[in-house]
Task: structure prediction
Amino acid sequence: MTQAHSHGTALVTGASAGIGATYADRLAKRGHDLILVARDAARLEELATRLRAETGADVEVFRADLTDPADLARLEDRLAHDSAIDLVVNNAGAALFGGFLEHGPEQIENLVRLNIVAVARLANAAAKAFNARGRGTLINVGSVVALLPEYRSVVYGATKAFVLYLTQGLNEEIGGAGVKLQAVLPGATRTEIWERSGRDPAALDPARTMDVDELVDAALAGLDKGELVTIPSLLDPAEWDAFQAARLKMAPNLSNAHPADRYGVRVPIDA
Ligand code: NAP
Result:
């Protein structure tokens, strides 16, 4: 068990690089102890050593391949039983570029295991623990591609739409005074994800690609403001509000006893 400091323990998945490593840095500096999760134990140890020295935080390395059922179960168990953990950053993820027709069954399965199965199971374990204690914060890292099927990132985008829905839906169930939820939707951000998924990072448009430090600092500022959905790039938050309002306007009309007249199925009452 980790020892609880004033800000409790934050568990960060995908902490060996990119967005997760930056969250680890910022959360240690905010006074959290840390549990760092990823496959590359050497990189996690290196980060842990630096953060212990710089911040005095208690930092533990938890090596896990989140596509491995045994590793995932060990982490769920830790979330269920370590009452010091009061913040989870569900961040580990991968991308899959190229057209859907180019992807094989194994690639799709691995991506879904990491970006959906692990995210949902860790969210479930964290939600149960936080709800029982009446406090805790769950941050799920999605992506703006969740909103953009037109960007042709079919299976990756669909996994990120899952993350957004999961967060919004879970907020209806348990969000409230003590339990905070946040979905963070980064746009293109300079990390290793591009090389890892076979993209040349040099091809990224610098005017539309964010530095990872700014991304995480903005995401944490959004958390502090109490935002359920944080889109660091979006200049005008009224655009998101309008999108939500348009969706909810449809809500009362999405389940009816009869199909709409335009389908020609229902016999009009006065026929
Ligand atoms: P990254 O630099 O490639 O880092 C990915 C992290 O996930 C690494 O720490 C990696 O560590 C870990 N990881 C990968 N596979 C894993 C596995 N099987 N088990 C456990 N950990 C695993 O990517 P990033 O850009 O920081 O991405 C973080 C999150 O942000 C992802 O969910 C991604 O979809 C999302 N996002 C990124 C961007 C972007 O442009 N960068 C945009 C939108 C959303 P190991 O290799 O050591 O396991």
About this structure: The domain at 9-263 is CATH 3.40.50.720 (Rossmann fold). The pocket of NAP is lined by residues 14-20, 38-40, 43, 64-67, 91-95, 114, 141, 143, 186, 188-189, 191-193, 196 (CB under 6 Å).
